[in-house]
Amino acid sequence: MEEDKKPKRGGSRPNAGRKPKAEQSRMITFRASQDVYEILMMQPNKTEYIEKAIREKRKRELRY
Fold it and tell me: What is the pLDDT of residues 26-61, one digit of tens each?
């Protein structure tokens, strides 16, 4: 009779847990001068602003 009992805890469930993002991201930190800090603080989406600036600079550098 005890053999028929199922465990009440444990075990993985299919499709449980957080789904992986399509693109992985990592957090970084850096020091900025006061003027750069003020510009960055005015932006509603700081990550998007920094990523766009870096990608645009890279495109300009690759042209030369």
Answer: 899 999 999 999 999 999 999 999 999 999 999 999
CA distance 12 to 17: 10
* Vertex 32 angle, CA 58 and 53, to 5°: 25
| Rounded to 5°, angle at Cα 42 from 30 and 39 | 55
Domain assignment present for residue 4? The answer is no
Domain count, the chain: 1
Closest CA to 38 of 27, 49, 24, 25: 49
Under DSSP, is residue 19 helix (H, G, I), strand (E, B) or coil? Answer: coil
